[in-house]
Amino acid sequence: MSENNNDIVLEMTNIHKSFGKLEVLKGIDLKVTRGEVVAVIGPSGGGKSTLLRCATTLEKVDSGKIVIGGDVLCDTDESGRLSYCNKQLEKEIRSKFGLVFQNFNLFPHFSVRRNITEALIHVHKKSKEEADKICDGLLAKMDLEAKANEYPCNLSGGQQQRVSIARALATNPEIIFFDEPTSALDPELTKGVLTVIKELAKEKMTMVIVTHEMSFARDVADRIVFMDGGVIVEEGPAYELVTNPKQERTKTFLAGY
Amino acid sequence: MELLRTTLLQLGDGFRFTLGIFAFTLLFSIPLGLLVCKGRMSKIKIVSLLCRLYISILRGTPLMLQLFLVYFGPYYLFKANTANVKIGPFDYRFIATIIAFSLNYAAYFAEIFRGGIQSMSQGQYEAATVLGFSRTQTYFKIILPQVTKRVLPSVSNEVITLVKDTSLAKVLSVAEMFTKASAAASSQVSVVPFIVAGAFYYFTNLLVEVIMNRIEKSMSYYS
Q1: Distance from CA of B149 to the nearest CA of A (A)
Q2: Alpha-carbon distance B101 to B21, whole Å?
Q3: CB burial class (10 A; 0-12, 13-18, 19+) of residue B91?
Q4: So what's the ipTM on this one?
Q5: In this predicted structure, what is the pLDDT of residue A176?
Q6: Is position B107 within any domain?
Q7: Is residue B223 in some structural domain?
Q8: According to a count of CB atoms within 10 Å of the terminal CB, is the N or C end of chain B lower?
Q9: Res. A4 pLDDT band, cuts 50 70 90
Q10: How far is B119 from chain A (nearest CA, A)?
Q11: What percent of chain B stands above pLDDT 90?
């Protein structure tokens, strides 16, 4: 894949982030090209989720630059001054990505259908018919056609997560972030969710997936990024990194799986 | 029998005022409570502090004292003549009652709402944010409906207490049911008016219970 600027969907440069005295991200660089699937692995507390939260505007970075779909979310000038884009652009940037949470975060008082269509209708100003059509298509893809009028509390964890993937896909984003999408699920339910993500990978959906499912990362991701202690310790083609890690730290971590 | 009939008529007449105090207090105290709750949770220190103070004082002093303060305050403080103050059919006696009740109940509601709002998981806000909902949309579409369900049992408690508290308006001689009951009891030299008043309060609250249960049930389609 050629790396001209149009093909880079996400670019994070020299990202620093601290919570109080705790430095969680110590200068992260991450580039994701269109159609690429990047898995981020590493021990808990290594900064994976924080990185994702910074990319999805849920946390503000301390310094660094983030570009999503060609729009600059934030940048740091030479004197080290950080500036974020205005609210209008931030809203536009938010429509360019989707985020799937570890614990789904579906809206419990909305039916499955409304969970998926609400943002389409009230943020993206689509008609009810249009939104329903998009919703039906996604539910079919997620094998959940029969559940459109159910409420999240009546679904299994795996089904809820598939609904939340559908919700993230509904606005046709350029990139989808997954924050440990199967960590709240038992192995049986995990399978269904991973199958859906695999399907998306086949369709060349650009994805960044924080995960502890090593074999899944190896099989589905194009590239794996191993993070620990707030830095990227090692990154490379998925299969190679898992089967033949270069760094000692990576080897120790992978030996645990 | 005749006596019971006149008692019922007298109390029924006072019951209109009881219902009036009840309804107006709910009408004003719930929105005011929401506002105080928002203020209490505000990031602006001074706003939050003032709301805390408001809640602390209104909850920490007797409602009866607050009734006196609102009713007599304007005259004692500013020599204001409240005798001619009238809004529609309501004299200042009644208006003062509504003001004191609303201010007092708003403090309780504010804390109930705060409990409800703070029990919401951060994830609901985050999901709404990344989907592009504005703050107002998030509040009214995502947060408030869920908070309503969560606070309903506590709100029922307050509403039931309010029905009974309306009897405090007697201290301002508002012609509500309890005032009438006391008058009837002393003129008849009988406890019957009190028993009848008790029945009025009880059945009103039974109705409140049934209604609140219905509302709770209507929201039980999700958990």
Answers
A1: 10
A2: 8
A3: middle
A4: 0.92
A5: 97
A6: yes
A7: no
A8: N
A9: low
A10: 14
A11: 75
Chain A residues with CB-CB distance to B120 below 8 A: none
Q: Which member of A57, A101, A153 has the closest CB to residue B127?
A: A101
B40 in reach of chain A (CB within 8 A):
no
Count of domains forming chain B: 1
- Average pLDDT for residues A133-147, to the nearest whole number? 94
Instruction: Measure in Å the smallest separation between the Cα of A13 and chain B Cα atoms.
Output: 21
Residues of A in contact with B129 (CB under 8 A): 57-58, 94
Contacts of A119 in chain B (CB under 8 A): 131-133
Interface contact A103, partner B, CB < 8 A: yes
Per the CB < 8 Å rule, is A105 touching B129?
A: no
Any domain includes B187: yes
Q: Which amino acid, residue A89?
A: L
Q: Check CB contact of A151 with chain B, cutoff 8 Å.
A: yes
CA distances (Å), origin B200, targets A48, B165, B195: 63, 13, 9
Asked whether residue B163 is assigned to any structural domain, the reply reads yes
Measure B152 CA to nearest chain A CA, in Å.
15
User: Rounded distance, CA A53 to CA A61, Å?
Assistant: 9
Rounded Cα–Cα distance for residues A78 and B115 (Å): 45
Q: What domain range is B9 assigned to? A: 2-218
Residues B27-37 have a mean pLDDT of 96
Position B59 scores a pLDDT of 96
Q: Which range is least confidently modeled, A23-27, B3-7, B123-127?
A: B3-7
The answer to whether A47 touches A28, Cβ cutoff 8 Å, is: yes
CATH code for the domain in which residue B8 is found? 1.10.3720.10
Assess A257–B contact: CB distance below 8 Å, yes or no. no
Residue with tokens 């600059």: A72
